[in-house]
Amino acid sequence: MAVSAYKKIIALALVFASVSLFSQANENLEDEVADPKATSSSESTEPKENTEPSLKKEATSTSTTRSATSTSTKESETIANNADLYINSRTAFELKASDDSSQVDYIEYRVNTGDFIKYSSPVTISTEGVSQITYRAVDRAGNIEPSRLLTVVVDNTPPSVLIMPVEPLHITQGANYASKSNTFTFKADDALSGVEKIEYSINESGFETFAADSPLKLEKSGSNLIRYTATDNSGNKSRESSIAVIIDEKAPTVEIIPNVPLVEIDGKTYSKKGNVFTIRAFDGESGIRRVLVKVDGDEEFRPYVDGIVVDAQGEHKIEAKAIDNVGNESELKAISFLVDVNPPQSEIKKISAEPAE
Q1: Residue 323: which of 346, 353, 293 has the closest Cα?
Q2: 294 and 278 in one domain?
C-alpha cells in the first residue's frame, strides 16, 4: 500500500511539472510573435517597457532623410502647422543618449508607423511631406526611456517667386519700360515649408532682404537690372531670376502743323478757309500712348483722330498734348489764328473823262 501511494504522488508531481513547463513555453512563444524583431546586443530577449510611453516633442537643430509613410491630407496639414523643424533630404539627424548608472545599451527609432530600428548612423528622410520620428534609449539594466517624438516637414522643392510692378510695364521691341514713380513688390509661394525670405539686388548692389511694407523703387533713369530669389523654411533656394527695366523720364513732344502756312497781316495771324491742322507727337523711349486736343475752348481734351479743319469766321484756338506709354506728359502746345471767310467786295464807278480836243 505504501509503495502504491508513493507512486501516485510521483505521477501527480510529474503531471504538474509538465503543465508548468508547457505554460511557460507558450508565454515565451507569444512574446516572440508580438515582437519578432526584438533582439539585444547580448542575444537575450529585449526588455519591455513597464508602462505605456509618453510621447514628448523635442526640437533639435539637426535633420533627416529616409522614405516615410504619409498620413491623410487633413491630418498631415494639421501636423505640418505644428512641426518642430522644416528640413530637406540633405538634412541628417544624430541620436545620442547618456545613462548615469548602468550605461546606455542602444538607441532605437522609427519613422512614422514603421518598425523600430537600432540606431547606427545619421538618419535621413527622402520623402517630401510630414514625417514623425519616434526614438528612445535602453540601458544595460533593461530600463527603457519613454519614447520621444520629433515632427518634421521634408521639403526638397524650391519656392517660386515673381516680381510684381504696381503699374504694368510697357513692352516695346522686347524692352520693359516704366515710369520713375512705379514701384515693385514680389510674390513667392512654397507648398510645404513656406517662404522664409525674398532677396533682391539692383544693378551692381549686393542682395538685400525684401520687406513687404517697403516696395522697391528704381531711382536711376535709363536701364536697370533687378535680380531676385526666394528661400523656403527648409533651406531650398530658387534659381536667380532677373528683369531689365528702363526708367523713362523723358516727356514726349508735340506740334501742330497747318497744311497751308498761316499768314501774318497787320500783326494778326490768318488761316485760309479749308486749312487742315495735323497733330504730330514723338517719343524716343516708351512711345506715344495717345494725343489729346481741344478746339476753341472745349471743356475737356478729346483724343486726336484725324486732321482738324476750322472754317467758321472769327478767332480760333487749337491746343494739343501727348502722353507716352509710361505716363509722361508733353508740354501743352497751342496755336491761335483768325479765319476770314467773307470775300472782299469790289465796285466800279464812273470817273471824269478828259474832254476831247
Answers
A1: 293
A2: yes
**How far apart are the C-alpha atoms of 286 and 252, rounded to whole Å?**
9
Q: In what order do the strands lie in the sheet with 183-189?
A: 160-165, 183-189, 216-217
Of 154, 176, 201, the residue at which a domain comes to its end is: 154
Indicate whether 346 belongs to any domain. no
Domain presence at residue 282: yes
Digit-coded pLDDT (tens) for 322-354: 999 999 999 999 999 999 988 889 999 888 777
Give the rounded distance of the alpha carbon of 306 from its chain centre: 47
Write the pLDDT tens digit of every residue in 184-232.
999 999 999 999 999 999 999 999 999 999 999 999 999 999 999 999 9
Query: Is residue 309 over pLDDT 70?
Result: yes
Measured between alpha carbons, how far apart are the two ends of the chain, in Å?
212
Q: Is residue 175 in some structural domain?
A: yes
What is the number of domains present in the chain?
3
Going from the C-alpha of 43 to that of each of 38, 109, 298, the distances in angstroms are 10, 19, 103
pLDDT digits (tens, 9 = 90+) for 131-171: 999 999 999 999 999 999 999 999 999 999 999 999 999 99
Q: Are 228 and 293 within one domain?
A: no
Nearest to residue 56, comparing CAs of 159, 134, 141, 143? 134
Which of 229, 247, 265 delimits the end of a domain?
247
Domain assignment present for 44: no
Whether the pLDDT of residue 2 is over 70: the answer is: no
Domain that holds residue 104: 56-154
The pLDDT of residue 17 is above 90: no
The position carrying cell 551692381 is 204
- Pick the closest to residue 106 from 158, 46, 60 (CA basis): 46
Q: Within this chain, do residues 237 and 257 fall inside the same structural domain, yes or no?
A: no
Q: Give the count of alpha carbons within 13 A of 330, CB side only.
A: 27
